[in-house]
């Protein structure tokens, strides 16, 4: 085998890869479906609102919020515009550095998160945690940390603790 030849996946690796890809796609779709049905928002919109709700003073720089929500600044800007129209978020220049824009969760946005979170958490628990043993949950966390680190340490979720 030459150094230029790909290291093809063996049967077990291929099965693991396909199971993971299917899970990522189906889990994302299932969470989006639940949130659309029960709260009228997308999973990405919920991630944005949730990220703000967990931040000091319910405020984050747009760049940090994009990282938390795992989306581009462009996508986040479009979503923030929709959330502003609903009165859940507003933007303001960062007083510490005017080159940045802050996203701020309003009281109405906070109420939306509080109303939405129980159903979302129940669905996450039903789909992800209930089918797994405690040991598998720990393994999943470790696997997530390792894969995120391999992707790049700067791209890990800001609330992720190693």
TrEMBL record:
SUPFAM superfamilies: Winged helix' DNA-binding domain (SSF46785). PROSITE patterns: HTH_MARR_2, PH_DOMAIN. It comes from the Bacteria. Residues 1-26 form the PH domain. InterPro entries: HTH_MarR-typ, MarR/SlyA-like, PH_domain, WH-like_DNA-bd_sf, WH_DNA-bd_sf. Pfam families: MarR_2. Residues 17-149 form the HTH marR-type domain. Coiled coil: none annotated. This is MarR family transcriptional regulator.
